[in-house]
Amino acid sequence: MEPNATRIEALIRELLIEIGEDPNREGLLRTPHRVAAAMAFLTSGSRTNIDKLINNAIFTQKTNSMVIVKNIEVYSLCEHHMLPFFGRCHIGYIPSGRVFGVSKLARLVDMYARRLQLQERLTEQISQQVMELVGAKGVGVMIEARHLCMMMRGVEKQNSVMITSSVLGTFRESTATREEFLGLVATRGT
Ligand SMILES: [Zn+2]
Predict the structure, then answer these.
(1) Which of 14, 61, 73, 80 is catalytic?
(2) From ligand 1's centre to the CA of 166, what distance in Å?
């Protein structure tokens, strides 16, 4: 169900007053409206239908070679502070007869990122979904991200990057496969 924009607008107005702002000043007049629209978009992944998203873009392909898509941009909101965390996601999988259309992995990342998240959970949800959707032999997902809740407040560490990874199937069982993935992800691609 879509969030109720009118209700969010009223809540944001209240919030503005509570932090000492005047919601009637020129710059803030339409802010509740903008925030409501932004929040609806930034959490839209939790209301996305995965079948519609994939839209049959899974193809038969006889290959046992590792497929890697690197540097997929990630923009999400941490569920502890509702502040953004952002970075890059790398996905590798070994197909078992079926592969994704090339844009679908990026769409999958967006779907799981557009909601209140933990980076650890985001990483696992992506790997499990890739595994399930194409019945892969193995999957590896790595996310490198910076968290504004850490950079702007709290410990104020502006340069720390959090790295999470999730490996399934052959990526978990075989050191060679895992190392191939990590090696390909570590090299600077264009
Ligand atoms: Zn946080």
Answers:
(1) 80
(2) 20
- Separation of CA 136 and ligand 1 centre (Å): 32
Q: Which of 15-24, 52-61, 100-109, 126-135 has the lowest mean pLDDT?
A: 52-61
Assess contact for 40 and 77: CB atoms under 8 A: no
pTM for the full model? 0.93
Identify which of 139, 122, 142, 120 has the alpha carbon closest to the alpha carbon of residue 177: 139
Name the catalytic one among 78, 89, 90, 125: 78
Q: Is 33 among the residues known to form the active site?
A: no
Nearest CA-CA partner of 72 in 88, 60, 84: 88
For 39-54, the pLDDT digits (tens) are 999 999 999 999 999 8
Angle between helices 104-113 and 119-134 (to 10 degrees): 140
